[in-house]
Design brief:
The chain has 168 residues and is mostly helical. It is built from seven helices and no strands. It folds into two domains: 93 residues; 65 residues, Orthogonal Bundle (Arc Repressor Mutant, subunit A), CATH 1.10.10.
Length: 168
């Protein structure tokens, strides 16, 4: 990812995450749930953009909000998707410290270590199969690579949680 792409993603993050956090809070969710859903939606967005399969019918912000909302509802076991809650107006989003959240995410990824960063990049951005990742990183097989990818994701999540805890 080049500097221009990184800047675009960071700008989208700063502009969109506060809206999602407020929406999730109004629907009874937590900040951590909002972060998890948003990060997953951001990965979907970036993957689709990289592969050229991203089809926007509105703004990137609206797309991300929609995907993150669906992911959050699914994580809560909601079978049907309800409309946006009454009174939800994106313009009413409070000015949260998006830069602090961005730094927390970046720090979490950096603290996960170079090998995790490379593994996650190979899977999410380079679209390597788990068999290719196993060969490239010297794992015994697909299952070992899958387990390591999961451990890396958990390490990033834990680093973000710790950074958030220490910031309080």
């Amino acid at each position: 990812m080049n500097k221009l792409q990184e800047d675009a993603i960071l700008s989208l993050y700063k502009d969109t995450f506060p809206d999602l956090a407020r929406m999730v809070r109004r629907m009874g969710g937590t900040l951590e749930e909002a972060k998890d859903s948003f990060h997953d939606a951001l990965l979907v967005y970036m993957e689709k953009e990289k592969t050229g399969t991203l089809q926007l019918h509105s703004t990137p912000k609206a797309y991300l909000l929609g995907i993150a909302r669906i992911m959050w509802l699914r994580s809560r076991g909601k079978a049907s998707l309800s409309p946006l809650p009454d009174g939800y107006h994106p313009a009413d989003v409070p000015d949260t410290d998006a830069e602090e959240q961005e730094q927390s995410l970046l720090k979490g990824i950096i603290l996960s270590g170079r090998k995790c960063l490379e593994l996650l990049k190979a899977f999410y951005y380079d679209h390597f199969s788990m068999d290719e990742i196993a060969g490239k990183f010297g794992y015994n097989g697909r299952r070992s690579a899958t387990v390591q990818k999961y451990k890396c994701l958990e390490k990033v999540r834990e680093n973000i949680k710790q950074a958030h805890t220490y910031a309080k």
